[in-house]
Amino acid sequence: MKIDRREFLHRAPLLLGAGLAAAQRALAAPPAAPAPSRPRAPLVFQNAHLHNVERLEPLPSGEGFRLCRVPTQVWEKMNAMGKTRSFAAAGAELRFNLTGPEAKITLRYVENRGGKAQGWPVLAELYQGGFLMRCEEIREQWTTLVIKPRSNLAKLREESPPGNANAFDPSLVRLALPYMPETQILRLEGEITPPRADQLPRRTYLAYGSSITHGSYALRAGETYPAQVGRALGADVLNLGFGAAAYLEPEMADWIAVRPDWDFATLELGVNLLRPISTAEFARRVDRFLRPIVAVRPARPIFVIDIFTSGKDLEADPKRAEFRAVVRDAVAALKLSHVRHLDGRRLFTRTTGLCFDLLHPSSDGFNEISDRLAAEMTPVLRV
Question: How much is the pTM?
C-alpha cells in the first residue's frame, strides 16, 4: 500500500497532455506575466504538514513510514540510484503549530551513504519560523525529539515584521530533516495544528540537480545551497537534488512542469551523465528535459546551471567542455527571456572550496555558490 497525492494522480495526465501539446506554441509566443504559484494540498502526517514529501510508504513491519520526494509514477521511471535518493529527505520538513505543552517526534535513519560518508553525524534542524533553535542528532534506532513552546516567542515576533510575505511566521515549528541518508518516521505526539497559508513565504523556489544540489558533504540541511538561496531570497524551497542520479528523465521533467507550486527554479544539469552517455545523447536529453518545463510554465524565471567547478577541470577534460556547451546552446536555442544559462564555474570559482574528493563543495564552497547564485537571481526576481 502506498499513499500518494490525490491531486497528482487525478490531474497530472490531463495537465501533461495539454502542456506538452502546447509546447511549441508556448515557446513561440511572447512570455506572459507570471501568476502567483498555487499551493497544492499538502501531505499531512498526524496533523503536521510534510513539506517536500510526495508520499508515505509504510514499512513492511507495520512500524513507521518511509518518506519519498517523488510520486510513484515518476519514481518507477527513475534510475536505480535515483530511486534510492528519492527516499533521502533533502529539503523535507515537518511543520506545525504547537498548541499544547510539548510535541514528540520519533524518527530514525537508515544508513545508505557511501563508505566515505558513513558514520558522519546525521542532524535535523529545529526552527521557530525562520529562527534556528538547535540541531538534533538522529540515530539508527528510533529517536524521540521533544519540542516545547518558546518562552521568547513575543520577542521573535518583534524581530519579524508583521505582514512580511517573504518570511516564515515565528509561531510555526519547522523540523528540517537530514538531507541524507534515508529518514523514517514512526509517530508525532502532542497538541498541534497544521500551518496556515499566511505563515509561509509567498514564493517558492524549486531546485533540481545532482548531489551538489542534494547537499552531499554539507554539515547540515540548512547549509545546502538551495536552503541558503531560499533564505537569501525570502522563499520556500523544494529540493529535488538526487546524488549521483540526476539523469534528466522525461517523467521528472513532465512532473516538474505541471507542478503549480513553484515560482522560479534552478536546473543543474550534466555532471551525473558524463560517464554513462555520449555528448549527443546528453544534448537530446537536455532538450527533452527543458522544453516541457519552459513551455508549461511561461514567464516563471528558470536558471539553467551547467557543471560546477571540480578537480577534473584541472585535467582539461574535453567532455566537460562539451557538456557545458550543450547546456549553454540549449538555453540559447529556446530564445526565451525567462530562461537563463548560468556557468557553474562562475558560481563556484575556487577548487580550494572543494572537499577531499575534489568534486563536492565544502562549507566554504556551498557558501560561495549560494552567494553568487542569489546575486545572479536577485535582479531577475526583483527581490
Answer: 0.90
Closest listed residue to residue 210, CA positions, set 289, 69, 307? 307
Q: Is the domain of 122 the same as that of 250?
A: no
Domain count, the chain: 2
pLDDT tens sequence across 110-121:
998 876 677 789
Q: Is the dihedral of CA 257, 262, 267, 273 positive or negative?
A: negative
Q: Which of 176, 199, 222 is the last residue of a domain?
A: 199
242 shares a domain with 178: no
Amino acid at 298: P
> Are the CB atoms for 138 and 178 separated by under 8 Å?
yes
Assess whether 187 and 249 both reside in one domain: no
Question: Distance (Å, rounded) from C-alpha 104 to C-alpha 189?
Answer: 5
**Residue 166 to residue 169: CA distance in whole angstroms:** 10
What backbone phi and psi angles, to 5 degrees, belong to 377?
A: -85, -30
Q: By the 8 A CB rule, do 138 and 183 touch?
A: yes
Sign, Cα dihedral of 314, 315, 320, 322: positive
Range of the domain at 50: 38-199
191 shares a domain with 238 = no
Rounded mean pLDDT of 72-96? 98
pLDDT band at 39 (very low <50, low <70, confident <90, very high): low
Least confident of 10-24, 66-80, 268-282: 10-24
User: For residues 208 and 342, what is the distance between their CA atoms, to the nearest angstrom?
Assistant: 14
Please report whether residue 54 resides in a domain: yes
